Amino acid sequence: MTNETTENQINQQMNDTNIDNLLFSDLLPANETGYEATRSFLLKIVDILLDFIKESSDRSTKIVDFHQPNQLKQLFDFTIPENPKNIQQILNDCKQCLKYQVKTGHPHYFNQLSCGLDIVSMAGEWLTATANTNMFTYEIAPIFILMEHFVLEKMRNIIGFPNGDSILAPGGAISNLYAIIVARHQMFPEYKTKGLKALPQLVLFTSEHSHYSTKGAGATCGFGTDNVIEVPVDANGRMIPEELERLVKESIEKGHRPFFVNCTCGTTVLGAFDPINPLADICAKYNMWLHIDAAWGGGCLLSRKHRHRLAGIERAQSVTWNPHKLMGTLLQCSTVHFKRDGLLIECNQMCADYLFQQDKHYDVSYDTGDKVIQCGRHNDIFKLWLMWRSKGDTGYEKHIDHLFDMTHYLVKRLKEEKDKFHLIWPEPECVNVCFWYIPTRLRNNEKNREWEQELGRITPLLKARMMNEGTLMVGYQPLGDKPNFFRNIISSSGVKPKDVDFLISEMDRLGHDL
Amino acid sequence: MTNETTENQINQQMNDTNIDNLLFSDLLPANETGYEATRSFLLKIVDILLDFIKESSDRSTKIVDFHQPNQLKQLFDFTIPENPKNIQQILNDCKQCLKYQVKTGHPHYFNQLSCGLDIVSMAGEWLTATANTNMFTYEIAPIFILMEHFVLEKMRNIIGFPNGDSILAPGGAISNLYAIIVARHQMFPEYKTKGLKALPQLVLFTSEHSHYSTKGAGATCGFGTDNVIEVPVDANGRMIPEELERLVKESIEKGHRPFFVNCTCGTTVLGAFDPINPLADICAKYNMWLHIDAAWGGGCLLSRKHRHRLAGIERAQSVTWNPHKLMGTLLQCSTVHFKRDGLLIECNQMCADYLFQQDKHYDVSYDTGDKVIQCGRHNDIFKLWLMWRSKGDTGYEKHIDHLFDMTHYLVKRLKEEKDKFHLIWPEPECVNVCFWYIPTRLRNNEKNREWEQELGRITPLLKARMMNEGTLMVGYQPLGDKPNFFRNIISSSGVKPKDVDFLISEMDRLGHDL
Q1: pTM, whole model, 2 decimals?
Q2: Which chain B residue lies closest to A28 (C-alpha atoms)?
Q3: CA atoms of B206 and B292, how far apart (whole Å)
Q4: CB contact under 8 A, A126 and B129
Q5: B466 and B510 in contact (C-beta within 8 Å)?
Q6: A210, B4, B166, B240: which sits with the fewest CB atoms below 10 Å from its CB?
Q7: Do B82 and A216 touch (CB under 8 A)?
């Protein structure tokens, strides 16, 4: 058999029909001669993904082809078969799956704190998948472990923690949990062996508008949610320092020990920034740990124009900052930073020398496994590093400024259309814009409690129309005494003024007769 | 301008030089006409990834080009620049990064519980990245949320939990933590609001060979590590039921409340399986929650030949099972299952109605955000679902059986080469094989304590030689009174008998003169 014949045979084998009939066992690694088949399969997958990317950026396509759960169960074959499905079916599964998936990168998707699809970050995540490693030792993830060192050090420098330590965690809630357990460890190290029953009743404080993860960690870590005190906020959703001090004093009078204050920079709904400096003063006075949950607002630190919102951040002991939010990194990418080095390892190490040997032939201080509560960790750094390399600091600053510029444009347009839209907080601090849509019949009504209730009833109805049409996605929720209202988020770099204009006209088109 | 001219211009623009000089801002989504550039960029990324995949399956290539941390810092530019790097540099970054990364999919990589690179699972992870969604609501992840329902239900059926509930978590340690907090919630629901100080001292039990995550959760959740009691194991590394009962009684005598037993199915080092049935009897007798940490051994449930190792698993209240280990799914994919439905939500919900609205236009029982401690979650289901579709149940059974067949072949070969290798536990229960390598000078020595100590000193030296040559990776650790020994893992479907033969000859080549 000549070489030519072999090659023809391979080419023959590689034509569409033949690839499609292959099974997983014809691919690498099960079949060691399966490289060409593997390559063809992956290129077909990439074609499917490229189609999805193209559609996600095409303003004339739907964001979602929405179906109720019971319908979707009929439309899509979720079952696991007894016998293997061939490559054709696997490719078809991928196509079908994307058909029903929400296009979170679509410029008309304003629904979550994480919107958009950064292509470089996505390429980074493809590479991460292919490298398929675990972030617990330098031995098996050398380049990525060092990358974490460099990027996290840079982030600490931006915060104003010249020394310190950091870790990437699976989401902001776990980052906040890290801050709480590290604070507890530094202040009451005996808890680690003896447990909380050996300590006075510890108490945490967080604003009533803060993310529920502080309360959640209060339950998980054994403090009890009764001991996570919610501090009242002002009319703009910011924690009131005087109220914090009053509640701290109350707690001390009960014989409890206030030890932790969570200061939110960028609340979930309003995007409010708690005032750091007055809270830091109170923490210093009462010997409490100041944590800043900047999961949402942290990205502002990259912009000279917007970083003033976090003035005083360097006074905190710890900071949560999620690049997967304002910075547009792919999900998930969450970081938590500590002013003092050594705390993470002191808090979390269980001295599992069967996993983290101390006699390796390299400097094992680079191994992170004993610093975390997770043991193994997904590689969440590469997609951030690559994206930041592609943008540089100046490109990231432009990205952040663009999101705020688009937000200001939206606020301006909503004010212009004030018969159709009621801005609830007219001067947003972040890219959250909260408003009611007003259908025709309610435009001339008195703006009283009953009117608000009616707008609150209309909100989910309009959302349902948006979902069923699939043309626009904006989230909604109630908050305090405000019934359901829309909270629009601009965190995708793909959003342009024309998308803001579309948002306004489309809501009116869908909702005017409600 | 004719259409033809435009197309030529685009083609011109797409040639290598031009793409390479582009910036991120020329791609989607910042540049809405950037689809062709985006496509070219991604195809180049895929070429780089395909090269890595090809090398990873080429037995003549190195697994790792190892450098000490300080050297690697010189060789690779980790810095974040002030200004954007162009596409050429981004592509080069990806290439360089993979050059220094360990090829965890290489058939001579036997280093971790997770080895291998399943191509279908990897394709699934590429799609997951492109879909870039968050698993907290049906609204934004409809297809993936339902996929979780189907796959987790199937896993519960395999375990023997016909009802119940499950969740995917970021790694086995967090899965075990879920089991502990859910157990605490069911048995002592008042902890949630009042905290642990309102309860008697709760005590947990786990074997001295178990993963350190139970002890870690003991600290995190406020019990204190003194209250996580290590139960002695027998000569094969299995928890001794009589010792458990003795320690439970001791604890009760102290006035403490034993409430949780962690039974490991597949220990980290030996791969031992604690005896489920006797432990379940003791749990029933003393009203304790039985959790099974089958993060490692869970995959055996897919094989009729090997599932007997977990006989009695359906008697547990909860089970951790990591598809990213024996099942070969890409990192991370960890699941935790509960026999009783409703517990996860009761334990973890914080009623954040500003996030999880109850008045949506679909059945919100599908939303998972309020069931978890993380709020947002990475999509870890698609890579598992797609892989399982491609293999079917029969293909997965073959996969598991193949890993055990290769392990038996390794054990047989080591026994044949008993002058060069000393099997420490000659009849492994899982795919962990633990042994010392014996260099020439020690082959005729008496096998006493001193001889073992010397072999233990040699182990890290041989490991260093493997890393520096880059031809083979096998992990090592001490355990109990056994000094450093190798623990070989076969969890990659790419491993063939010739790779086992290579392992043996290569260790001898590198180590005989030590």
Answers
A1: 0.96
A2: B119
A3: 10
A4: yes
A5: yes
A6: B4
A7: no
In angstroms, the CA B72 to CA B66 distance is 9
User: How many angstroms away from the CA of A443 is the closest CA of chain B?
Assistant: 24
Cα B32 from Cα B167, distance rounded (Å): 38
Between the two ends of chain A, the Cα-to-Cα distance in Å is 75
Q: Is the peptide bond preceding residue A332 cis, with omega within 30 degrees of 0?
A: yes
Selected residue of A220, A367, A468 to mutate for chain B interface (largest B Cβ count, 10 A): A220
Picking from A147, A151, A114, the residue whose alpha carbon sits closest to that of residue A133 is A147
Query: Is residue A145 packed enough to be buried (19+ CB in 10 Å), middle (13-18) or exposed (0-12)?
Result: buried
Which residues make Cβ contacts (< 8 Å) with residue A319, sequence separation at least 6?
A159, A161, A291, A292, A294, A298, A313, A336, A337
By three-state DSSP, how is residue A269 classified? coil
Neighbours of B235 (CB within 10 A): 6
Q: Which residues fall within 8 angstroms of residue A173, CB to CB, at 6 or more apart?
A: A211, A213, A216, A217, B373, B374, B375, B376
Q: Indicate the residue of B29, B130, B377 with minimum beta-carbon distance to A107.
A: B29
| Residues of chain A positioned with their CB less than 8 A from the CB of B269 | 354
| Residues A383-428: tens digit of each pLDDT | 999 999 999 999 999 999 999 999 999 999 999 999 999 999 999 9
Distance from CA of B226 to the nearest CA of A (A): 5
Coil/strand/helix, residue B229? strand
Nearest CA in chain B to A403: B30
Dist. CA A447–CA B130, nearest whole Å: 44
Chain B residue with Cα closest to A135: B331
Domains of chain B: 3-103 (3.90.1150.170), 134-378 (3.40.640.10), 389-511 (3.90.1150.170)
* Edge-first strand listing for the sheet containing A334-338: A165-169, A334-338, A318-321, A289-293, A257-264, A202-207, A228-231
Backbone φ and ψ for B305, nearest 5 degrees, come out as: -75, -30
Q: What is the pLDDT of residue A17?
A: 53
Number of inter-chain CB pairs under 8 A, A vs B: 535
Closest residue to B29, CB basis, from A52, A147, A493: A493
> Which tokens belong to B333?
């994919």
DSSP 8-state code for residue B424: S
The amino acid present at B121, given as its one-letter code, is S
Q: Do B222 and A223 touch (CB under 8 A)?
A: yes
Can you tell me the distance from the alpha carbon of A38 to that of A94, in angstroms, rounded to the nearest whole number? Answer: 16
Q: What is the pLDDT of residues B427-472, one digit of tens each?
A: 999 999 999 999 999 999 999 999 999 999 999 999 999 999 999 9
ipTM of the complex: 0.96
Contacts of A482 in chain B (CB under 8 A): none
User: Which residue in A435, A432, A434 sits closest to A490, CA to CA?
Assistant: A432
Cα–Cα distance between A315 and A305 in angstroms, integer? 21
Q: What is the 3-state secondary structure (H, E, C) of A303-336?
A: CCCCHHHHCCHHHCCEEEECCCCCCCCCCCCEEE
Q: Is A220 exposed, middle or buried (0-12, 13-18, 19+ CB in 10 A)?
A: buried
Q: Which two tokens stand for residue A269?
A: 């709904």
- Measured CA to CA, the distance from residue A416 to residue B485 in angstroms comes to 74
Q: Which two tokens stand for residue A254?
A: 């009960």
> Which residue's entry shows tokens 């995917």?
B168
Please give, rounded to a whole number of angstroms, the shortest distance from the CA of B37 to a CA of chain A.
11
Integer Cα distance of B292 and B207 in angstroms: 12
Q: pLDDT for A57-110, tens place per residue?
A: 999 999 999 999 999 999 999 999 999 999 999 999 999 999 999 999 999 999
pLDDT value for B18:
79
Conformational region of residue A160, where left means phi above 0, alpha means psi within -120 to 50, and beta covers everything else: left
Q: Write out the two tokens for B35.
A: 């689809």
